[in-house]
Amino acid sequence: MKKRKRVFCPYCGNRISQKYEEESLRDYCTVCNLFFYDNPLPVVSMILLEERKILLVKRGKTPYRSQWCLPSGFVEIDESIEEAALRELEEETGVKGMIVSNVDVDSCTNYFYGDLIFLTFEVEQIGGEPAPGSDTVAVKYFPIERIPRLAFGSNTKAVETYIKSKADYWAIIDSFAHAVKEGGPRKKKTNLLSDRLVDMIQENAETIAHKWLKDVTKNKSTYSYRTFNSAHLFRRVHYALSHFSDWLEGTYTEEIMQNHYTGLGKERRKQKVKLYEVLSSLNLIKKHIWEFALSQGMWTKPIDIYMVLEMERRIVIYFDKITFYTTVGYMEERA
Known about the structure:
Elements: E1 17-21, E2 24-29, E3 34-36, E4 41-50, E5 53-59, E6 68-69, E7 72-74, H1 81-93, E8 95-110, E9 114-128, E10 136-143, H2 153-178, H3 195-203, H4 205-216, H5 230-242, H6 244-249, H7 254-270, H8 275-295, H9 302-334
Parallel strand pairs: 4-9
Antiparallel strand pairs: 1-2, 2-3, 4-5, 4-7, 5-6, 5-10, 8-9
Helix pairs in contact: 2-9, 4-5, 4-8, 7-9, 8-9
């Protein structure tokens, strides 16, 4: 059943005609000398989330009977949009809610109701338990990745908008959940946000190594390095860069790291390189990792800032271990 057109004047019963008001053709009563305005009907929809599942209702009445949608309904006279949203939520789902934020506003033309304006809110449960209401036959939480086809296109748009708005936040939460204690090596692959930066370091290890080599042979804090063979230095720094990911994955073990860098410390001691120069050379590696990362356009979004902070934590631990074992090797050689 489609929305019926106006035929008679609700005030005098005269048959409605049409007349232009400025540039708009409107329904008009010649007896009452009155225009009638057809405005979009306001509809409220609610998104209630629980563990990344969205509460949907199955409609029990025409139109779209037995189809799923967000808890939705028309705004009544003498109630605010917010009041309507919370009323419809409770009537259709049994849940008492509190409005968190506005998610989306959309306008559409529906074959049954005519022109509508959908206002969708995120709500939080403060009472009640999910149960079918007067206009619904089922209430169910659906995972965000398995939302069924919804009765109203505006519902679909609002859900997509909501999920997109939460994507960065959820990614950060996931990254925290998967992060290994203190950022150390892990037994299996996890999805940390900063993995993208780790991959970038691995893929560009040669570029970073060349930048470090140019710096370390000119920097005043690493004066002795000017006398070293460039190929030897390049191999050393490339080794540190290329094994960072291996260390995070647990394939570059603590024993291998200890043997390599205590050996480096002993070697530099024999070469009469000052300890502060050795430590400065290691710090310069970190410097060039970050300079390269920033040159690739980091810090453009809040989630990028989180990735960088997470990456910093992981790099600090890796290089702290390198520095420690190098210093131990240097001091052992001295003894």
